[in-house]
Each structure stands twice: as C-alpha cells, then as structure tokens.
User: Fold this.
Amino acid sequence: MKFRLKMAVSALALGLATTAFAADVPDGTTLAEDQSYTFWLLDAIKSIDPQINTDVEGSDILRNLFEGLYNEDGDGQLVPGVALDHSVSEDGKTYTFTLRDDAQWSNGEPVTAGDFVYAWRRLADPATASEYAWYMELMQVENAAAIIAGDMDPSELGVRAVDDHTLEVTITTPLPYFPQMLVHGSTFPVLQSVIEEHDDDWTDAGNLVGNGAYTLTEHQLGERVVMEKNDTYWDSDATVMDTLTALTINDGNQALTRYLAGELDRVDIPAGQYPRLKEEYPNQAVSTPYNCSYIYMLNVGDKGPEALKDANVRRALAYAIDRDIVVDRILQGGQRPSYNWTHWAVAGFERPELDWADDMDQAARLEKAKELMAEAGYGPDNPLALTLQYNTSDDHKKIAIAASQMLKAIGVDVTLDNYEWKVHTDRMQNQDFDMARYAWCGDYNEASTYLDLFTSYSGHNNGEFFSDAYDQVMRDSKTADDPLPLYQEAERILADQMPIIPIYHYANVDMIAEDIRGLPQNNVNNTWYGKNLYRVAE
Amino acid sequence: MIAYTLKRIAIAIPTLLVLIVISFLLMHAAPGGPFTSERELPPQVLANLNAKYGLDDPLWKQIGTYVWNIVTGFDFGPSFVYKDRTVNEIIGAGFPITLTYGLLSFVVAVTVGVSLGVAAAVRHNSALDYAAVGLSIGAQVLPNFVMAPILVLVFTLWLGWLPGGGWQGPETWIMPVIALSTSFMASIARITRSSMLEVLGSNHIRAARAKGLPEHRVILRHALKPAMLPVISYLGPAFVGMITGSVVIDIYFSTGGIGKAFVDSALNRDYAVMMGVTILMGALTITFNLVVDILYGWIDPKIRY
Assistant:
C-alpha cells in the first residue's frame, strides 16, 4: 500500500514542479495579438452537463468549462486541479483530498467539497439516469451499485465533505489507478443551486455556471460552441488564450479545406492523407498515439460458429492478417500494427514478449496459419465460411476487404456484412456475428481500462470469451503492488486463446496551426486544456 | 372552394395521426435503441434511462402519451440523445435556419428558373435556348454533394471571399443557397420551357398575336399564367423539400439546420426528435399540397372543386 501511495504522491510532486502555471510560456516569447483558438468537432455536442455527457467531443468542452480534482499534463501525468493533493488510508480504500481554497465558480461562489459530493451523487442517482452512472461503479465508490439499482438513497454514496476543503472518498476495493480516473469529466463538480434554479436548461449559455478556466458564451447546436476566459478561475492570471471556439463540421474533408483556408487551428486528417500533408506542411501535420485499439472480435460463445471455438482456428485467423498493409497502405497516419490488446502507449504498460509478434515475420505467420487450419481440418478443399461484420465507414470497409483477401489465402471464405452503427452494435451485443469490427478507447491512462473488458463479468465482452484463468489474473491485479506482470500475463492469455484479432493501435493525426503552442504531444488520451494554450506572434 | 378547403383540413388530421403511428412503429422496429452504444450499458443503468424517458411502457401507451402531450401542450418531449435539449428547442433552433436558406433558395430557383425557361421558349432554337438548356441539364446532373465541396474550395480556399460554413449572417448564406437552388432551378427552367412552348403554339396565343398585341404582353399576360400550371405542381413538393432542409447542405456548410438533425435522429434512434421532425415535415407537405391545389383553381378556371 505504501508503495502505491508514494507513487501517487511523487507523480503529483512532479506535476507541481513542471506545471506551476497554466500556460507555460517560455521567457522571450512574443505572444500574438489575437489569442483565440478554433478547433474542430465532427458532430454536434450531445450534452455539456458533466454527469450526462458520454462523448469525447463533449469532454473537450467540459474540461474547459469545469475543473475536476486532477488534470493531466502534456505527458499524461496528473497535475493538481481543484485538489492540491491527497492521502490514501493504509488499506487503500479511503482517499482524502485537500482542495484548494481559492477555487471559485464563475458566479463568484467558492468551490467546495460539497459540490463534488453533490455531483457524484447526481451521477449515481437513478433520477439523473446518466449513461455514465456505471463510471461510479467502475471507480468502486462505496454503494454506487446499490444506488444505481435504486436500492439505496444517493446520500449513502461513499463520498463526503469533511469540511469545505476536504473531500473523503471510500472505495470498496483498492484501485491503484483511482486518481487517474478522476480526470474524467463525469467526476467534475457542478453547482446545485444553478441546477435547481434552471433545471434542464442549466447548461444553456448564460445559465451555465462552471469552475473551469472558461465560461460558455454561445452554443448553437451543430454549428459552434464559444467559450471566453473566466476571470474568476483561480489561475486566470496565467491563462493566455482569451477565446476558444469549437466549430461543428460533419465532413472531415470539408474541415480540412476550412483549416487550409485559415478558419481552424486544428483538424483531424482524413485517412490516407497524412503522408501528402506531412510532405506539404511538415510543421503542421502531426501524428500522436491515441488511446484506442482496433480489433476484430471473434464470437467464441454458444451462438458463435463451431469453428471459432477452436483456439487454433482463431490463432490462424489472427496470424493471416498482414497488419503492416493495413497501417502502411490503408490508414497511413502513424497508426501502429498491433499484436495485443492494450494500446502500446498506455502509461506504465509494456507488451510482453509474444512469439507470433516478435519471433515471426509475416511469411512465417502465414505458414503457421495454414498449418493450424490444416490441423483443424480446413483447407482449400474444405474452406471455412465466416462473416465479417463492420459498421458503415470507408475505412472499415477498406480494411475489411483487405482482411477478407488475406484470410482467403488460408482457405477462409469471408462474407462481408455492412450495417449502420446501431444495428452493428445491437447485433454484437446479441452475439449475432462471427467476426465483428470493434474498437475500444481507454477511459483513463492505465492498462486495466482495456484488459478488464475480457473478464467474464465485464459486460462488454461481446464475443463471450470466458476464462477463469484470465478472470483470476485481472482480479489479482487490483490488489497487486505492481500490476504490470499480471497485465502481461493477461495479454499472454489473450495471445494464446486469441478471442480477438488485433489489427492496429490508433493514432491521432492532426493538422495544427504553426503558431499554436501548449497542445499535448505525448498524452494518449489527448487530454487538452485551453488554459495551457497560447498563440505566438509569427 | 371554402368547403373544399375545410374538407381537406379535416382529412389532414387523420392523415397526420396515421403518419405518427406508422412512423412510431417503424422506428421502434429498427434494431438498437437510443441508448445502444459500444459500451453496453449495465442493465440497471439502462432500466433507469428507459424509466426516465418512458421507454419501459407498452408501445400503445407510449404512442398515447406522445400524442396526448402534443395535443394538450404542443410538447414533443425531450431529445433522447441531445439530452440538454427538448425536441421543441432543437426544432426551434434548427428550423428557422433551414427555413431561411430554403426560402431564399426557392426564390432564387423560381426567379432564375422561370426567366431562363421563358427566355429559352421565346427564343426557341436560338443560341440562348441552347445555352439555357445546356445550363439547366448541367445544373441538374451536378449533385449538390459534389457542388458543395467545389464551392467551398473555390470561394473559401482559393478566392478567400466567403467563409466555408457556419451560420453567422448573410455571407454564410450564399453558398448554401447556390448549392441548394441549382438543381431545382434547372428543373423549373426545363418544365417552364416545355410548357411555355406548348402554350405559345396554342390558339389563344395565336388570337392574341392576331389582335396585334405587343409580344411582351402576349408572353407575360396571356402565355405565362397557363404555362405555370405544370411548374406549380412541381413547386409544391419542391418547396417543402427546400424548407424542410437538406442533409447535404447541413453537412457541408455546417449550418445547424434541421436536415442533419433529422438524419442523425434516425441513425441515433433519437425517437423524440425523429417523430418531431417527421410530424413537421408531414404537416408542411400536407399544407403545401393543399396550397398548390388551391392555386391550381386560381390559375386555371376550368378546374372546379
């Protein structure tokens, strides 16, 4: 326990030392006259209520309007937010956070521990009906499950305000990565009086009161969100950027055109265009690792095809895919071929040595795949017929076509099934598939956000891969001083049983205006804060 | 005529009801629901959501409550996906935008289309005629999802004259209106031209010319009105099509209009928004079909109700 405590504290101390101010502007920098930053949103913001939001785009807005206990720096390390630091009890189940006393809401009221208590209870409260209520359960906060089920009153939640600036959280099992989970928007505080006054309209511009570095001045659904610097924010003196504007543009290519016309400071690069743009704009096109993994999930459950119950067949399918072609020829954006589940750049994670990844080249893998198929009784004379299901998208389609050709080489006849998103998801959740395209994005920067998914009790294990050994390893990892060896063991089980076909680890490929500074370059969650940004004079 | 109008309005109400019930049932028959996501929700969380939005009631009760709320309070309920907003707010914010570029497009399409059609017919088989026909065929075959990115490329990136999208005043209206009106304009021009040609060959025009009327009077006073009949039957649905929005315009120009919201609501299974927009479009379609029928009677006295 002590080890863990030390880890958390030292991480914080490090953060404090390197990021003492909001925007870290080096001496001698000439700032531009215009301090405004315009970024791209693919879709309309579904909600800017911290406890209701479910989207990455929404989180980008939330982080600027609200502030949670901790923030992340450009390397994904925790830095103080409203909390200055915390201590953990000997048994690892009670966290006590010390909150700063100069944090204010945008209406001038002080931010107190009670605001967090209110927000967390609100997240779990069945009356709120938050889609992210399960996050309280994931955080193992005491009584969360019973409250969500309606069996207990929200006031029984394991969070209390010791005084205005001390917050105490009780969790049911020790979680080494608990502090990392607090960066998530659903844990941000909200002000009870404002919600009660405006009810469902409290998130409208003009009504919304936040404690972040910016306030909401305009939200035109599906068009734009505008945020202005908040003068009551505790670190507003060090905040350089005056205005943040998010433009909704539903088409990636159109967004790129508007970036090139100077209307945006940051856009995602559409698939396949990174090499060209990198050559043309070497200082603007950047690729950074992004906390998501792309796989084909195999249905190994009762409703799945008989052939997929054989681990040899599953391994053969995984071996036959040439991932280099997928990333180098189709995606071309700095994504990395994957031979395991957890994203390579997740903090504190290292992939274990895996023979199919490290000791074989693609030719050897293909040979082995043919061998395994022959052993299982399949071959050119007796081909295995499987369907590969994917949701509507040009990229998924291209990858699926390539994969079906690669699988043909080992005698698998693949039928491609394309469905729109909701149908695809619905079929997966009803085990109505053979192989299905799936992607998972980590909720926080730690390997368990991936590995927990394949436990038999996870609720997201659509392929119904149930393994007692795997469950045990993941259970043990929760209390281990150093969970890495157990995470590696879990990855080895996955590589051996192969309930998924790993394809690639995501990367964010962006065009970023040359005069913008302060965006994270090394944070897999791409957690960025407007208060860290500044624009330099050309 | 008044009796006829009243009768049509009386028919409109059951028509809308049938529309509501069928859409409601179809929508619920589609796989997945508003809360289906890659992170399958724990059953208890899903139950809380279904309870909050009344999705745990039997279907007949849901339809009943829905219609009752509309009739008694004009309340279309909360959006299941855009949870900070009600359907009324979403339509209230998006429809005026759609209506603005829709009406402008309509005006442009009718003015340019009719003028072009009349000019082509009057100068039949001249260079002007060929140019007008060529132009309208070109405009018709160029779909707006091709035209929209080209417009942005030219006017935003290359020339730097217009903002590439958004809804921030008249300069952001220009490209959406061009992209939306072009193909309608082309159709109107073609219909006007052929109908005008037919009218110009008819007896009453010959009589008018024989009376020695100046040509512009013949065209404007005697030919134009009867030539508009087929155009008007086209304009009714076209008008509804334009003012209820275009998903292509909304996507490429980020207008925040209702067209994108409608398509999204179907893909997101946002039952409430989808019903709201369906009813809006249904009501508009019924209304403007009625308007067209009444206009018919005004233009062509031979039509009796």
Observations:
- Chain A touches chain B through 55 residues (CB under 8 Å).
